[in-house]
C-alpha cells in the first residue's frame, strides 16, 4: 500500500506520512478536528473552512488531480485550517486519528458502486462504520449526504446498526438545512430541486 500523503504546510510538496501527526502542531492551533471522506473537487471543504476558520479540517481524496487542486486553492485563498490527504481513507484513517479525537465526520456523495462485484469498495461497511464511531468524541456528529436512495437507506441502516444515534428516529432522513455548506455536486441538485438524502447522526455519550 502506498503511504498517505500529507501536504507540506509551506508549499505544494507532498511528503510521506510515516506516523500519526500531532494535529496541534500541524495546524498551529487548537480547535475542533473534523474529517471529510472523499472531498472530490473540494467545493464543500473549501467553503466549510472559509466559514469556520477555527475548525481544523482534514479532507481525504484518492484522486490526485482533485486532492492537489483543492490544496492549491486553499493556499491561494489563505486558508490555514485545511489539509488534504491524497489516499484511500479506508486504509489510512485508522492510522492517523486516535479514538475519540474527531468532532465531526463528513461523507458527501460517496461513489455508489453499482455493480454487485464492486460493492466491497463502498466506504460505509459495518466494520468501517464501527471504526468511525470509535474515532468520534461523545456527542460527535456524522454528516452523510447522497443522491442515491437505495444506497442512502443501506448506509443509514449500517450506521445505525454500528451504534450511531439518529435524533429523528431509526431510518429517518434529515431535512435540508440552509445553514449547511453544500458541495459542488449538491449545489446542482439544489438548483434543480432533485432529492438529496441526508443524515446527521451522533455518537451518544456513555
UniProtKB/TrEMBL annotation:
<dbReference type="InterPro" id="IPR029063">
    <property type="entry name" value="SAM-dependent_MTases_sf"/>
</dbReference>
<feature type="binding site">
    <location>
        <position position="36"/>
    </location>
    <ligand>
        <name>S-adenosyl-L-methionine</name>
    </ligand>
</feature>
<feature type="binding site">
    <location>
        <position position="111"/>
    </location>
    <ligand>
        <name>S-adenosyl-L-methionine</name>
    </ligand>
</feature>
<feature type="binding site">
    <location>
        <position position="88"/>
    </location>
    <ligand>
        <name>S-adenosyl-L-methionine</name>
    </ligand>
</feature>
<dbReference type="InterPro" id="IPR055361">
    <property type="entry name" value="tRNA_methyltr_TrmB_bact"/>
</dbReference>
<feature type="binding site">
    <location>
        <position position="115"/>
    </location>
    <ligand>
        <name>substrate</name>
    </ligand>
</feature>
<dbReference type="InterPro" id="IPR003358">
    <property type="entry name" value="tRNA_(Gua-N-7)_MeTrfase_Trmb"/>
</dbReference>
<protein>
    <recommendedName>
        <fullName>tRNA (guanine-N(7)-)-methyltransferase</fullName>
        <ecNumber>2.1.1.33</ecNumber>
    </recommendedName>
</protein>
<keyword id="KW-0819">tRNA processing</keyword>
<comment type="similarity">
    <text>Belongs to the class I-like SAM-binding methyltransferase superfamily. TrmB family.</text>
</comment>
<comment type="function">
    <text>Catalyzes the formation of N(7)-methylguanine at position 46 (m7G46) in tRNA.</text>
</comment>
<keyword id="KW-0949">S-adenosyl-L-methionine</keyword>
<comment type="pathway">
    <text>tRNA modification; N(7)-methylguanine-tRNA biosynthesis.</text>
</comment>
<dbReference type="Pfam" id="PF02390">
    <property type="entry name" value="Methyltransf_4"/>
</dbReference>
<feature type="binding site">
    <location>
        <position position="61"/>
    </location>
    <ligand>
        <name>S-adenosyl-L-methionine</name>
    </ligand>
</feature>
<feature type="binding site">
    <location>
        <position position="147"/>
    </location>
    <ligand>
        <name>substrate</name>
    </ligand>
</feature>
<keyword id="KW-0489">Methyltransferase</keyword>
<keyword id="KW-0808">Transferase</keyword>
